[in-house]
Amino acid sequence: MTRRVQILVALVLTALWGAGIYAAHANGHLRFLDHLEATLTDLRTQIRGVQVPPDLVTIVAIDDTVVKRGGSYPLPRADLARVVDTIVQFKPKVVAIDLLLVDRSAAIGDATLANTLATGPMVLAAAAIFPTASETVAPSSEGPLAVLPQAERFLLPLPAFAAHAEVGVVNVATGQSGSPLSVPMLFRTHDKVELSFPLRVATRALDKPLTIAPDHLMLGDRAVPTDTDFALPITYYGPRRTIRTVSAQSIFDGTLSRAAIENRIVVIGASVAGGGDFYPTPFDSLMPGVEVISTAITHLIAGDGIVRDRKVHIADALAAILLPMLLVGLLSWRRSAFGVVAAAAVMIAWAGLNLFAFTHGIWLNGATTLAAAVPPVAIFAGVQLWAGGRRTQYFAAKSRSLALFQAPAVQEWLARDPNFLSKPVRQDAAVVFIDLSGFTALSERTDPDALTNLLKAFHALIDKAAVDCGGMVTGFLGDGAMILFGLPHAMPDDAARALKCSIDLHRGVERWIASLPPAIGGQVGFKIGAHFGPIVASRLGESHQHITATGDTVNVASRLMEVAAQNDARLALTDTLLDAADFHGAPDGVLTGPLLTQVRGRSGVVTVWFWRDRNGPSQAATKAEMID
């Protein structure tokens, strides 16, 4: 499978994964994502910070001060009637009582409250009772209303109270974190649809007709965007009491300000400890339910709620599919660090866009997109790392194999400059040749395996001596080798290092031959020739190239081995090499000469010197050295 096909398959699988995650969550599965989304929503709300709410709603709180005065909770109906009566006298737009008036109390108190409710525009709270702890959505053939939370029944105010007021359901929808993230606008039982408390208050305050469209609500001519189940997403303006809140005790004390009530929506609710509903929010560990309801009312009246409608869900679906595909595509781009950096930049940009949209009133789902993006990206990145490790091992093995055929210095140079010696280079260099004597005759009488081991040991000795002196073995010629000093580039001490390598080879091979069994060591010898001068370095071959040197200097160095053998010596050096090496003799070696001689295949005379080890074994050439 080609790399392009692999990437295409990865992109298709990524798209299918993203689509599957989104569809599963949209159909009520993967509930753990709701907890993550609630956490992300709290974080985004805190980053957005506290906002000043539109000054439309006043909360009259039945708080601890009121309970301490009256000595009991719930507040007696007669006292509640006094609170409502005082508020009505200050001409509010509507009075919304977020208290469940479902039980009978003292007859006089109930009658007093019922009469008071008839004096102004009132909305009372009802509750939806669900068969389980969670609100269920049971799709049916009832059209858009099929998505409404289906209650078992409604818990309504007493008829004596309901006769003088409108009724709305106060239930809110809490996320997995327990924080209310939305307020359903409509509820249903098997035979009835009821408006929510905030929606009933808003329609009464605005005095506008309500229209239920397939995917949103209309208050008069203004659209109210809701979620797919007609729930109103809410975001909190700040901590508790951010929305104007006054204690009901101010009514009993006669200190209630008319300005806090007149022409405003007044919500009466409980905030007493141990009574009423409290919820955690991004700004508070406990916020009274009446303030949650008031937040929803403010959103409906001011139109400043956060949008999470069908269009936003379409954007979420596209993000769940396209973002993971983009990230996988970037990670596969050239398999380079740039792709990783680009993918990280895209994720940061997406997070920034998500936060920007949230702070500007659009709630894009973060949890679903993360669940769609993180697993395929992590898997693809892991596969990339695994494949990269395999490629690294492969190329390391290739490099080790190459090292067996190229000198380390040249291998390193080729890695840095693949065009090294692509064109021939003329320069001065030192050339050393070494060859075993008597090997041809020995090979006729020796086991091939033993002969192979003999050559391996000889080649290893040559390679070590060359590397130690900074030379390059350009090739092993069966029972001999050519060593070049001057590549990858010429150095001032090339001749000196070649001279040292020649002497080290002389001593090392002598010791090696002495360590061989007499039947073998007595039949072999060696000869070395070294010269310095101009060469032409180049790469030869087409499909398989090798680096070598040609020219008169190479020919002379090769023929010097014959000169050494003809003169009962093992190491022949030219005066040109000695002069270039600035050699003045050594106490542990004997240099004899000069010998003016001709070499085969070349006109002219060469000045040759012979080097012997002062403390080494006898330097007399063996018969094999003379005739091989």
Give me the secondary-structure topology.
Blueprint: H1 3-26, H2 32-48, E1 57-62, H3 64-70, H4 77-89, E2 94-100, H5 107-117, E3 122-129, E4 153-155, H6 159-162, E5 166-169, E6 173-174, E7 180-184, E8 186-188, E9 193-195, H7 197-206, E10 210-212, E11 216-219, E12 222-225, E13 231-233, E14 245-247, H8 249-253, E15 265-270, E16 278-279, E17 287-288, H9 289-302, H10 310-332, H11 337-359, H12 367-403, H13 408-416, E18 425-437, H14 439-445, H15 448-468, E19 472-476, E20 480-485, H16 494-515, H17 518-521, E21 525-540, E22 546-550, H18 552-566, E23 571-574, H19 575-581, E24 589-597, E25 606-613, H20 623-627
Parallel strand pairs: 1-14, 1-15, 2-3, 2-15, 3-5, 21-23
Antiparallel strand pairs: 3-4, 6-7, 7-13, 8-9, 10-11, 11-12, 16-17, 18-20, 18-21, 19-20, 21-22, 23-25, 24-25
Question: In words, what does this structure look like?
Answer:
With 628 residues, this protein is an alpha+beta fold. 44% of the residues lie in helices and 21% in strands. It has 20 helices and 25 strands. Strands 18, 19, 20, 21, 22, 23, 24 and 25 form an eight-stranded mixed β-sheet that branches. Strands 1, 2, 3, 4, 5, 14 and 15 form a seven-stranded mixed β-sheet that branches. Strand 8 and strand 9 (193-195) form a beta hairpin. Helix 7 (197-206) packs across helix 9 (289-302) and helix 16 packs across helix 19. The longest helix is centred in the middle third of the chain and has 37 residues, at 367-403. Mean pLDDT is 86; it is low at 134-141 and 618-628.
